[in-house]
Design a protein that fits this description.
Layout (H helix, E strand, L loop, with lengths): L1 H13 L7 H11 L10 H16 L5 H20 L4
Helix pairs in contact: 1-2, 1-4, 2-4, 3-4
Bound molecules: protoporphyrin IX containing FE.
């Protein structure tokens, strides 16, 4: 749960309008890249699905709209992480 929480916070910070996602995610992108943890881009969709499922389980006010907003917020962070996989 800790790691999920940390990830969501990092991606939320990184997805603020006008903010370079690298400011918050650069070190994590490097950690997940081929040369370290080696997390290929295809795995991110499973990770996102697990995250959305957890939100559904834990948020008593969960709705389809809540899911959609989380999806949107996570998208840019995931794109950034994937774009740095080969670095
Ligand atoms: C935007 C997406 C993601 C974020 C922000 C994120 C964030 C993090 C953070 C904060 C850590 C702990 C820091 C560290 O160990 O250096 C971590 C570790 C890790 N992450 Fe991610 N992560 C993401 C996606 C993924 C995905 C898609 C996978 C694999 C399916 C993954 C697998 C791992 C593994 C294996 C570790 C190391 C765990 C350990 O040391 O026990 N992560 N991630």
């Amino acid at each position: 749960m800790r790691m999920l929480q940390a990830s969501m916070q990092m991606v939320m910070l990184a997805s603020q309008p006008g903010i370079d996602p690298g400011l918050y995610l650069s070190r994590m992108a490097e950690r997940h890249s081929r040369k370290d943890l080696d997390i290929p881009p295809q795995l991110y969709e499973y990770w996102l699905e697990a995250l959305l499922q957890t939100v559904e389980e834990k948020d008593p006010e969960y709705t389809a709209e809540v899911r959609e907003v989380w999806n949107l917020i996570m998208e840019s962070g995931i794109q950034y992480m994937c774009s740095r996989y080969e670095d």
